[in-house]
Specification:
Helix content is 84%, strand content 0%. It has 280 residues and is mainly α. The protein is globular, with a radius of gyration of 20 Å.
Length: 280
């Protein structure tokens, strides 16, 4: 049964990645070429100063277009936070935050389509995603856009998963290998989101952004004013409740996967660690 479930998850994850890769390709590949000159110049200059290994490291691991796109999520989030402290309308903040979270749909395919998935990008992706979501949850609290119990449900699973992954990292940690290599292997093996994890995150994002969209529905300057008001208020409330319920349900799956300390899982981590150590 467990093997069948794993096969289904693997099939769903691969199908999801393949489909998103094809959908995003026409939009993301021009970005790859746009970033290319900047990437080439910086890596070449650094290589001339610090050596060819630095040039290769920057090119392969740091200055990838996908990493630039993920970094844009942090910039948009910072801009939205600045708008909050300047007293800007919630609708304006919501538009920027929505643009920030949408980058999550494109950065993964951009990296995979060009065989440029990096450990830095993986960590940036997770930190960027949850930073945006946590700020959106805060705004829901601030503007009373969603009931408090809904928001507590949204927050409830996060610290549990975080503590589980910290404990798992400590359990798998290879003391004969550097901290940097261990974190790289952990990102590559444990933090790659499968189909169900992406679905869970999607339900949470829809729910908490639904709260901000509803709170901004009365502002005719809201970029999504027409779209939001096209959906009846009762329907919006139902969709938000349904998405939160599905998020919480899938949280059980995510927790179970995170708690997988099996020897088979540890072996995968060690194999990934060995590949990174040998530069393969």
């Amino acid at each position: 049964m467990a093997e069948e479930e794993h096969t289904l998850t693997e099939y769903a994850t691969n199908t999801d990645k393949s489909l998103r890769g094809k959908i995003c390709y026409p939009f993301t590949q021009p970005l790859w070429w746009l970033v290319l000159p900047v990437r080439w110049v910086i890596s070449r200059v650094a290589g001339a100063i610090f050596g060819d290994e630095t040039r290769k490291w920057l090119w392969r691991k740091i200055l990838t277009p996908a990493n630039f796109l993920t970094a844009a999520r942090f910039w948009l989030l910072g801009k939205a936070i600045a708008l909050f402290f300047s007293g800007a309308a919630l609708s304006e903040q919501t538009t920027l935050l929505f643009l920030a979270i949408i980058t999550d749909f494109f950065d993964g395919p951009l990296a995979r389509n060009n065989d440029e998935v990096t450990e830095l990008g993986t960590y940036m992706d997770h930190v960027g995603d949850w930073s945006v979501i946590l700020w959106v949850i805060f705004l829901n609290f601030r503007h009373q856009a969603l009931p408090i119990p809904y928001l507590l449900i949204s927050l409830g699973i996060l610290p549990i998963l975080f503590l589980i992954y910290i404990a798992k990292f400590r359990e798998f940690y290879d003391h004969e290998t550097s901290w940097f290599t261990n974190t790289s292997a952990f990102a590559a093996e444990e933090l790659q989101t499968d189909f169900w994890g992406r679905l869970q995150f999607g339900f949470l994002a829809i729910a908490v952004f639904g709260g901000l969209f509803s709170a901004s529905a009365g502002d005719p300057n809201f970029f999504f004013y027409g779209f939001t008001n096209f959906i009846p208020e009762n329907t919006r409330a139902f969709l938000i409740s349904a998405c939160l319920a599905l998020y919480f349900y899938l949280g059980g799956y995510s927790t179970r996967e995170a708690l997988n300390y099996s020897e088979a899982q540890a072996k995968k981590f060690r194999e990934k660690l060995h590949k990174i150590k040998n530069g393969s």
